[in-house]
Amino acid sequence: MEEHMENNYLASLKGQFLMAMPGLADPNFALTVTCVCEHTPEGAVGIIINQVHSFLSAKDIFDELKIKYKPETASIPIYLGGPVHMGEIFILHGPPFGWEGCVMITSTLALSNTRDILEAIAMGGGPESLIIALGCAGWGPYQLESEIRQNSWLTSPVSEDIIFDISVDVRWKEAVRKMGIDPDLLSDTAGNA
């Protein structure tokens, strides 16, 4: 049984994008792009990069945590990182990487969630490229592998320009396009051909 489970584990998807197929039924992930931050046989964690909170901004986070901030940082958008740990803050970011809770995803991308990085961001410092997210996406052991086999997700290497430089509303289409696939031709029916 243990050996069989080992065979169900795909190579780590850490540092990959998951693009939800149009037929994915879970409304939390409809047409999302998720950056996989960690993936082991125990499960996976990611941050959705194309859902912005409709009314929260960094000012709300800074005020809640009593962090002093410069006026120009107040309007940094807050992303909906996923339906798990929705009360926790996660920062997906480029360099620098010396923060207390910094976990490297690739050689140029990391995930942090400690106060030191938030304080730096609030005062106009910290990483130049970043996403502040509330919550994350999470999968239990072999759950993500099973969903991929059911054609719920497309996978491709993370592309930082899609995370940090492309408009939020076209990130899904651009991530799919970067794979060489026309997003308008994808079926909204999951299943195996």
From TrEMBL:
HAMAP family: UPF0301
InterPro entries: AlgH-like
PANTHER family: UNCHARACTERIZED PROTEIN YQGE, UPF0301 PROTEIN YQGE
Organism name: Desulfonema magnum
Assigned GO CC terms: cytosol
Family statement drawn from the similarity comment of this UniProt entry: Belongs to the UPF0301 (AlgH) family.
UniProt name for this protein: UPF0301 protein dnm_097270
Pfam families to which the protein is assigned, alphabetical: DUF179
